[in-house]
Amino acid sequence: MSNGNGMAPGQIVKVLIGVVVFLVVAIWLLAKLATSGFNVDAEVMTKEAVAARLKPVGVSVASDAPPGMRNGEQVYKGICMSCHGTGLAGSPKFGDSGAWGPRIAQGFDTLVQHALSGFNAMPAKGGAADLTDDEVKRAVAYMANAGGAKFAEPKAGGEAGAALDPNVAGKKIFDSVCTACHSTGAAGAPKFGDKAAWGPRVAKGMDGLIASATKGLNAMPPKGGFTGSDEEFKAAVEYMVNNSK
Ligand code: HEC
Ligand code: HEC
Predict the structure, then answer these.
(1) Do 171 and 139 reside in the same domain of the chain?
(2) Are residues 79 and 142 in the same domain?
(3) Under 8 Å between Cβ of 226 and 164
(4) Is the full-model pTM beyond 0.90?
(5) pLDDT per residue over 176-224, tens digit each?
(6) Same domain, yes or no, for 97 and 39?
(7) Is residue 210 helix, strand or coil?
(8) CA neighbor of 67 nearest in space, from 214, 168, 202
(9) Which residues pair with 119 in a beta bridge?
(10) Domain of residue 134, CATH code
(11) Is 64 inside a domain boundary?
């Protein structure tokens, strides 16, 4: 029996089998991609990309706390979660005590060292070079504790309970928050370093200044819009006042 293409029936069957096998393999590959590779991306897209889009402009990547002052949870959510939230790239997953147990057994200092310098597919500081070493330590403690450790998370701003250093903690807050008005004198703010503008204010005494600035005063919003602790805000006032009298 002849056909229009001049193929023998046996050849047609072979071609048809070839086409069917090709289709089956192609469908299987597509299904595999859809259930594995694509899902990871989709998750990252929804959680991370949405968070990134909701992030206010002009503040540090991890949270609205000033750089250097972010606690472990803020650093984790801003940086580390992109991998450790899902176990991406073989990272120990957040809250998975089975994955964290052997790592925790290495001790806090080793974990911190690996997080600071990088470790195989773990990039140094999780890829966020602007994190301070203390911020990385807090994030390590936060993550390890969620995996069963009992490390003390180093306090934001220095040693536990110690008064915050105006020239370190205070300066950081000034540079990220207060500078918006107090460097330029915007809205009638007394300018940083302007002794004449600060003179009559300094006469109120440090406690009086801290009290009025905490509450807010005319165009000065409560705490200047700073959302951290009273202790941190106090350090920022001290930094500004000490350098303006
Ligand atoms: C780009 C993905 C990625 C990001 C972002 C990331 N990590 Fe990791 N992390 C990994 C991977 C992968 C490993 C496992 C490395 C290994 O054991 O080979 C890991 C392991 C670790 C470990 C265990 C190290 C050890 O000695 O067992 C710690 C601690 C850690 N990360 C902390 C952090 C901190 C803190 C952050 C955020 C500042 C962070 N990671 C962000 C991928 C990431
Ligand atoms: C949005 C602008 C703005 C920001 C941001 C801002 N301030 Fe002010 N601040 C002002 C203005 C305006 C005044 C003067 C208010 C007045 O006397 O009417 C002022 C006054 C002050 C005073 C003097 C209060 C007094 O009793 O005389 C202190 C102290 C102060 N600010 C601290 C801070 C600190 C610390 C920060 C950062 C954490 C900050 N400010 C951020 C606008 C700002």
Answers:
(1) no
(2) yes
(3) no
(4) no
(5) 999 999 999 999 999 999 999 999 999 989 999 999 999 999 999 999 9
(6) no
(7) helix
(8) 168
(9) 122
(10) 1.10.760.10
(11) no
Site to probe by mutation for ligand 2, drawn from 69, 177, 182 as the one with most ligand atoms within 8 Å of Cβ, is 182
Domain range holding 88? 72-146
Between CA 64 and CA 226 the distance in angstroms is 9
Task: Give 212's Cβ-side CA count (13 Å radius).
Answer: 11
Residue nearest to atom 6 of ligand 2 (CA): 224
Smallest Cα–Cα separation from 227: which of 155, 160, 176, 163?
176
Same domain, 50 and 76: no
The answer on 32 and 76 residing in a single domain is: no
Tally of domains in the chain: 3
Assign 53 a pLDDT band (cuts: 50, 70, 90).
very low
Please identify, among 114, 146, 178, the residue that sits at the C-terminal boundary of a domain: 146
Cβ neighbours for 191, distance < 8 A, ≥ 6 positions apart: 182, 183, 184, 185, 197, 244
| Structure confidence at residue 164 (pLDDT) | 79
Q: Is 83 in the pocket of ligand 1 (CB under 6 A)?
A: yes
In-domain check, residue 62: no
Domain assignment of residue 158, yes or no: no
67 C-alpha vs ligand 1 centroid, how far in Å?
A: 21
Q: What is the pLDDT of residue 96?
A: 97
DSSP state of 184: T
User: What's the CA-to-centroid distance between 158 and ligand 2, angstroms?
Assistant: 25
Phi, psi of 214 (to 5 degrees): -65, -40
Would you say residue 6 lies in a domain?
A: no
In the three-class reduction of DSSP (H, G, I as helix; E, B as strand; rest coil), residue 119 is classed as: strand
pLDDT at 4: 47
Task: Identify the pLDDT of residue 34.
Answer: 54
Which of 97, 112, 146 finishes a domain?
Answer: 146
pLDDT-based confidence at 237, cuts 50/70/90? very high
